[in-house]
Design a protein that fits this description.
mainly alpha; 7 helices; 12% strand; 3 strands; 3-stranded mixed beta sheet
Length: 164
Amino acid sequence: MNEKEVYGMGEILSNVFTNIDSTRIQQGNDIVTIWEDTVQKIYNYGPKLAGHTKVVDLKNGILLVETDHPGWNQILQNYKDFILKGLKMKIKDLEINSLAFRVKGTSVSLSESYEESKKRQQQEYISKIENDEKKLEEMGFKNESSGEINPKVKELFKGIFDEK
């Protein structure tokens, strides 16, 4: 694009929306609606479960669903077969073979391979441990390998380490 070329807003929007497949948008809307209808039929949990879940992604026949608490993931896992059967009955032209669940705030996605996910989780865990160790050192609990117990720790647990 030349710096001196000027495009109208209508032309810009037209170019942006040309690449959007309206059938895929409609399928996404259908999946969300059918998800809610199917989940609401689960005995004892239906309406609450539908209110605490959200369809996030569909890739390679796996539907990724997000919940706001791990307990809802467990309930969904228990009713997985029921949900899959209900989805397949209502969405015949779309292949959904499995369900995956994540808790809101986690970064699990369907585009990530198992190895990538594992590596990312390990790195997050290592970073957390390093941050915790740094905080402990700032509080005066240094990681000393002398075999002696830090005097501050001894003070906190006075009486436990006294010889009898």
